[in-house]
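Re: beginner question about structure tokens

> Can someone show what the tokenized structure looks like for a real chain? I only ever see the sequence side.

Sure, here's an example I had lying around. Input first:
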Amino acid sequence: MRLAATETVEAGSILAKAIYNDKGQVLLREGVKLAEKMIGRLQGMGISYIYIRDCRTEDIQYKDPLPAKMRKEAIQTIESVFRQVEEDQNLTGSLVIEKASKRFSEIIRQLIGEVRGNKELLTILSNVYTYDHYIFTHSLNVTLYSLAIGMKIKMPPKELETLGLGAILHDVGKIKVPADILMKPGRLTAEEFEEIKKHPGDGFELLKGVQTIPLIVAHCAFQHHERINGSGYPRGLQGEQIHDYGKIIAVADVFDAVTSNRIYRQAMLPHEGLEILYAGAGTLFEAKLIEAFRQAVAIYPVGITIELNDGRKGVVCRQNAGLSDRPVIRILEDNGSVTNPYEVDLRTELNTVITGCDTTFVKQ
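And the corresponding structure tokens:
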């Protein structure tokens, strides 16, 4: 399979990986032949990239970081709790979360087990999902990314669980943001952005009253938009004023936001998202956390077509643990000429580097 931009896919191409909605339901099944109208529908739903069958990469397979059942159950739990809180935001919102805290803790432990047991780099391709309600899937993705960072910096198990709870609940305050602002397709006005900026404080107020979770979980909601140079919100905290959990979730939150399909823009590819983080290293985000993230997450996902500095072009077929920018490549072209496929391991070919990605898909 190969990862291709939907705008380049031709009618008659075969879908190599099913397209799901955020409830885990299949919208387009694997193996379907794509008609022009289907491709148009995918573009209309904001699906930027899809996996397409290709005879020379048929054995290359993208593996989800979570079993489908676990992903579905986790998102359903997040949605159910957030919806209940939304329906009664006055006195019982904290009680709803308190009752659900045991289930959230179970989910976090399951996620930790999956991330720890997965020997490959974490790959979350949000662009193969379409969302009715982005916030629920975003909460799960941010949790996975945060746990991956926490494991990479060797956080103790109990701290890792608390970090996971903070991550999965970091955006709970958004339930108070009017839907027409949260889902607005265009640029927000200054007044609308001020409404958005209230959600960390609203999340803190909701979570600080929950007796069954540590108070630091509430501060994760409060601090995930703070930046180490003081340019963040809602309080403009700087450096050590921000808890380590808040700093970790900030990195995970930004990366998932820019690499996910949103109603107002297309998803970036993972390496582009990492560039956004590195642009803020030392000013917005702690550099050591970005480096830990880079080591834990697949920057060039399996199936993506890349270009090398020597003119060769190929498809990422495997990852190298801890070396997100040094995967194994199946070479398909050599300076514009089609060649018999062979593999190059960038872990050992130290003079060879990736210079770009190409998501154009031409049927063979």
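Each token stands for a local structural state, so reading them left to right follows the chain. Residues 2-57 form a domain with the Molybdopterin biosynthesis moea protein, domain 2 fold (CATH 3.90.105.10).
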